[in-house]
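job 3f2a | input accepted
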Amino acid sequence: QVQLVESGGGLVQAGGSLRLSCAASGRTWGNYAMGWFRQAPGKEREFVAAISKSGGTTYYSDPVKGRFTISRDNAKNTVYLQMNSLKPDDTAVYYCASRQSTYLSSFYYTKDEYTYWGQGTQVTVSS
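job 3f2a | predicted structure (127 res):
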């Protein structure tokens, strides 16, 4: 069982930055690939970024590519999402997710592929 707790959300002006954190419990954290998703009001939950269990492979959705960076610190059981050049369209509840992964470089970008989810953290970007 893995428990995920997100933090770092808040209100920021367009063009600003935020860093989200997702702290995970569990002794086998290093076996899990991680992802970030977001859900805006009235919209489906959408993929944002993913990272392999080794941290060596990352993947981003087109809307955030070049602005967001996903990373992980396996010693701290934590995954991060650095968000720069934020836009009002980035306003959403952000969720981290995890799943066991066999291969070091595998990543996953559909919500159905993930097993565990955090409770979400709100990010609001004002214009």
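job 3f2a | The chain is about 0% helix and 50% strand.
job 3f2a | closed
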